[in-house]
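Internal tracking record. Fields below are filled automatically when a chain is submitted to the structure queue. Please do not edit lines marked as system-generated. If the sequence contains nonstandard residues, flag them in the REMARKS field before resubmitting.
Queue: standard
Priority: normal
Entity type: single polypeptide chain
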Amino acid sequence: MSTSVQTPARDEEQASLLRRVLLPTIFILLGVIGLMYPIVATQWNNSQQAKVAEQYESDVAGADPHTLNEQVEKARLYNDEKAGGPILDPWLSRISEDNTEYQEYLAQLSGLRAMSQVAIPSIDSRLPVYHGTRENTLQHGLGHLYGTSLPVGGPGSHAVITGHTGLTNATLWDNLSKVVVGDAVYVSTFGEQMKYEVDKIDVVLPEDVDSLRAVPGEDRLTLITCTPYGVNTHRLLVHAHRVPMDPADTGALTDSGTIFQWWMLILLIPALLGAWRLIWWINKERRENSNA
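SYSTEM-GENERATED OUTPUT FOLLOWS
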């Protein structure tokens, strides 16, 4: 019976191999994970937001039409009563949520997973809309700007919907800057489906809210996000007016969804190259070690 004895030279050779293989492998894997995380996180959150939008429409389809209509009419009455109130920038100003007026606001269009949903086919976007513009709200979808009309349409109404740009883990309204005059925007609120046509695009300072006020006799919608991308010193305002909705337009509220972003390709290519290089290098080291 014989036993193999590890010589100091053999131990050093194995330790050297471990240093050559293990440490570089760890660093490369960390790099690949770092490159892949924003892509995976963004696509995951995008899918969750799309699921909420789909479930919202399912909830509406399964709800009592009379109850839905009551909610919409109640929201329109609320709009009439609250018209002319103060409008504040959604990112600079915060409203105390424990006051009676804000609680009354939260009671409007309640009972479903979201207040509404907004679809913009030209940028393949369909997102749920929630009450208010708290940071936690805007991390998960769009927010309705408190102080503006609830998104149920009607003469003299002007709903303002806000959304983030530049998050590392969600697309949201990264592509809102690609919207052009003439594009369609669809809003679905408790069974009320509305179509708006973009007629003006502005870039303003956060304090400039004059264009967000309601215009007597007009049915308007404005979409807001921060700009420039990653700097966020100004606000991009996409203004639209109500137009008739054709039966063929109803598909826009179910077909739109988030898309693969161009920046994901920039991260995905080096991540895949890094993974391929790691596999090639490990196989090379294994062959050299077996031949030694």
